Amino acid sequence: MNTYMVKRLILKDWYFNRWTIVSYIAAGAVALVLLGMGNEGAFFAGTILLVTVLIALGIHLTMATVVEERKEMTLPFVMSLPISAREYTTAKILANLLIFLVPWGTLLIASFALIAGSAALPDGLIPFTAVVLTEIFVSTCLILAVALVSESQGWTIGAIVLGNLGFNGFLYFVSHIPSMGSTMKGPDIIWNQAAVTLLLAELAAVLLLLGLTFWLQSRKTDFI
Amino acid sequence: MKDLAVHFEGVGKKYRHFTLDDIHLELPTGSIMGFIGANGAGKSTTLRILMGLVHQDRGTVNVLGSDMPAQQAAAKRDIGFVSEDMRLYKSATLAWHMGFIRSIYPSWDEAYAASLAKRFDLKPQQKIKGLSHGQRVKAALLLVLARRPRLLVLDEPTTGLDPVARQEILGGLMEVIADERRTVLFSSQNTLDIEQISDLITFIDRGRIVDSDDKETFLERWRRVRLEVPPGVVLPALPGIVGTAGSGRLTVVTTSSYDPATAAAYQSAGATVRAVDTMTLEEIFVANVQSRREGQAA
User: Fold this and answer.
1) Quick one: pLDDT at residue B297?
2) Angle, nearest 10°, between helix axes A85-117 and A18-35?
3) Which of A21, A181, B58, B95 is deepest in the core (most CB within 10 A)?
4) B4-213 belongs to which homologous superfamily?
5) Which residues of chain B does A65 touch, with a Cβ-Cβ cutoff of 8 Å?
C-alpha cells in the first residue's frame, strides 16, 4: 500500500471540501443553539436541523468526492497518478470518513455537552442521541459504498432515498424500544443493553459496508 | 533483444458491443508511435489497458518493465498520461495542480514547468474553470511534461482544438520529443498530427491492429499507380495490391508494397503506366482499413 499517495489523495479531498466542513459545522452550531434555547418549538427545530445537517453532509461529501469525480471527468486524472484501484478506494473511504467524522464528531460531542449542561434537557437523551446520530453515519457509509461501487449518480440517489427511509424507520423503531424510551427522559445517562447493542450493530454495519466495498472494488476490471 | 517500453502480447478485451482482439504491439524505447484509428476503433481501450485502468481479459501487457495491471502503481510513476476525456479540477488553479503533482513526483522540474507555462501562455494563478479547452489541454500537458516521464501516453489530446492551439501543442511535443530517451505513444484520428511527430505508425480498426510499421516505410511502399489498360489486357495479380478502381481504359491500382518492378510488371502485361502517385498517411490509412474490411466481408 502506497500510504504516501493515499495521504495525498485524502489531503486533496480535504482541501476541496474545507469550506463544506466549515459551513456544515456552522449550520450544526445553529442547530445546537436552537436545541439549547429551552422551549419545545426551538428544540424541535434544532433536532430537525441537526439531523438534516448531518444527513446532508454525508450526501454532499459523497457527491462531491466520488460522483462528481466521474461526472466532471477528473477521475482519469486521479487514476493516471501512481496509484492502484485499491489505493484509490482506500483514499476515498478514508477521506470521506475523515471529512464526515470531523463535523459529525464535533456536533456529537457538542450535543452531548449541551444535553449534559442544560437543565431543560434530560441527560438520559445522550444514549439515544448517540444511537440516532450513529445511524446517520451508517447511512453515509451506505451512500458512499454504493457511489464507489456503482459510480452512478442514479444508484447513489437510490441509496440516498433508502438511507433516508431507513433513518426514519430506525427513529421510529428505536423510540419504541421500551428500555430506550423509558430512560430517554430520565435524569441519568444509562447505557443499557439496547443502546449498546444498537451501537455495536451500527458499528458492525459500517464495517460490513466498507468491507463489502473493498471486496467489490477488487473485482472490478474497468476504472474509467 | 529489443528494449521495449511497451509490449502487448495477445491482448483481448470483450465488451457487449465491442471486442479488442488479439493485440500485439511493440513500442521500442525512445520511439514515437502514432496510433491511428477511427472513432470506436479501440484506441482508448488499448491505451487504458496500457495504463492499467482497464484490465485485459487475456494476454499480457508489460510497460516499462512492469506487468499491467498488477504493477500499475509502479509503472505510472514513469508514465505521463493525457487523454481527451481527462479534466483537471475546475475550482483549483493551475498553480495548485502544479503543487499537487510536484508533491507526488520527485522528478518535477520547476524551471521547465515555468518555461512550459510561458510557452503555452498559461497563467498559473488562473482557475481551470476560466481556461478554454485548448488551454486546459495545454495545462494537462504541462503537468505531465514537467515531471519528465519516461513514457508519454497521449490519447487524442488534440481532439476538438482549433488549428492554432493544435499546432502549439504539437510544437511543444516535438520539443519534448527531441529528448531521445523519451518514448511516446500518441493516438489520434488526425493523421496530419501523427505524421508530424511520429516515427512509427500503427493502424487499428474494429478492435484489431491492421498494420504497424515505421512511417518512412509506410510512405515509401504505398503508391497509387495510374494505368491505361487497352482492351484485352489483363493486369497481373501482384502481391500487395489492396485495391483496383476505375473502369474502361483508365485504372488506378493501390499497392502496399510498391517497387519499380511493379510498374515494369504492368508494362510487360501491356498496360501503360501514366503516373505513380505517393499517398498521404490519411490515404494510406483509409485504403488499408477499407481493404481489410472488404477482405473480412468477402
Assistant:
1) 54
2) 20
3) A21
4) P-loop containing nucleotide triphosphate hydrolases (3.40.50.300)
5) none
For B83, the grid coordinates are: 487523454
* Of the candidates B41, B42, B61, the residue with the CA atom closest to the CA atom of residue B51: B61
Query: Cell 495491471 appears where?
Result: B69
Q: Dump strand ranges (E) for chain B.
A: 4-14, 19-28, 32-37, 58-63, 66-68, 79-83, 151-155, 183-188, 200-205, 208-214, 223-228, 241-245, 250-255, 272-278
B140 vs A: CB within 8 A: yes
Q: Please tell me the distance from the alpha carbon of residue A59 to that of residue A146, in angstroms, as a whole number.
A: 12
State how far the Cα of A144 lies from the Cα of A85, in Å rounded to an integer. Answer: 16
Task: Please judge whether B74 and A82 are an interchain contact, meaning their C-beta atoms are less than 8 angstroms apart.
Answer: yes
* All three cell numbers of B51: 495504463
Contact A82 B104 (CB under 8 A): yes
For B251-270, write each residue's pLDDT tens digit. 999 999 888 888 899 999 88
Tell me the ipTM for this assembly: 0.86
Q: Determine how β-strand B183-188 pairs with β-strand B200-205.
A: unpaired
Closest CA–CA distance from residue B89 to any residue of chain A (Å) = 7
| Domain chopping of chain B, boundaries | 4-213, 223-278
